[in-house]
Amino acid sequence: MTVLENLVSARAKIAKPEDWTQDALARNALGHGLYSSHDHAAVCWCALGAIRAAGGKHSLEVFAAVNHFARVNDIIDIPAWNDSVTHEEVLAAFDRAIEAERQKEQIAA
Fold this sequence. Notes:
Strand order of the largest sheet: 2-1-3
Helix content: 55-70%
Number of strands: 3
Strand content: 5-15%
Shape: globular
Radius of gyration: 13 Å
Structural class: mainly alpha
Oligomer: single chain
Number of helices: 5
Number of domains: 1
């Protein structure tokens, strides 16, 4: 999975406010925080949890997507940032990261 594919998929996972969370990587249907964003019971994710869940278990690709998201948005700590902003701000950050990656891929082509 490419960085672009990961970010697009992650954004789709949290596109609706009820699919996004704060103070946990992911939550189950009862609202309980989960230790893993890959947990089969997860129904909503924070920004970092969505990137991890979308990327699957491919750590290098997930690492690249996380780094790109953080760099483009000038974020040092994605979970802390996610917990201090609105859902709309998170989606806007994904949009910036996706657009930057699209531009990067066009230049490379």
